[in-house]
Design brief:
about 180 residues; mainly alpha; elongated; Rhodopsin_dom_fungi; membrane
Length: about 180
């Protein structure tokens, strides 16, 4: 699996480098031609050949990046339903990213409307960023829910009586000696 991961990382990196150079040098060795007007006008954005090439590399890397961890999921022994749901959501968003990419490809090939293409491209980028960011969001959500539950434990009801007893031991992680210090 480690060799496959290195191959996948190398393939994704090479696709990114190829995309970069194709976008810059599609019209020749001088990248400024991409912005030229008149008889020298050439742009990588309007080339359907380039679009098919770059989309096929993008699609291949997206499918491989979503499919790579699936065999590992079969070996996981998770008892938490919340974690299982979280994984399904992350992989579901990965599949949605691929579907939006296909929608963008179809739109570029058959619809002559730049606004529709921009909408599909923006949706694809946004969903991809969300999928990547979800791995960092989990610890943040854990801290926020922990903070929320701690706040609830330390709150008082309307009569002014604390919601939890003040004389719990340090080992239990509660208040000690009525001092109001909370030990975690």
């Amino acid at each position: 699996m480690r060799i496959a991961l290195y191959c996948l990382a190398g393939l994704t990196t090479s696709f990114a480098v190829i995309t970069f150079f194709c976008d810059w040098f599609w019209c020749g060795p001088d990248p400024s031609i991409n912005w030229a007007k008149g008889e020298q006008e050439c742009t990588s954005f309007t080339s359907m050949t380039l679009m098919r090439l770059l989309w096929s590399m993008n699609f291949t890397s997206e499918v491989l990046n979503v499919a790579y961890p699936i065999p590992l999921l079969a070996t996981l022994k998770m008892t938490s339903t919340r974690k299982k749901i979280g994984l399904v959501v992350v992989f579901g968003l990965g599949v949605i990213t691929i579907a939006v990419s296909v929608g963008r490809f179809v739109t570029m090939g058959y619809v002559d409307n730049a606004i529709s293409i921009y909408i599909w491209a923006t949706a694809e980028i946004c969903i991809s960023v969300i999928v990547v960011a979800l791995t960092a969001v989990r610890p943040l959500l854990r801290k926020l829910t922990n903070l929320k539950s701690t706040t609830l434990l330390m709150s008082e009801d309307r009569s002014g009586v604390p919601a939890i007893p003040l004389n719990r031991s340090r080992k239990l992680g509660g208040f000690t000696g009525g001092s109001g210090v909370y030990w975690q």
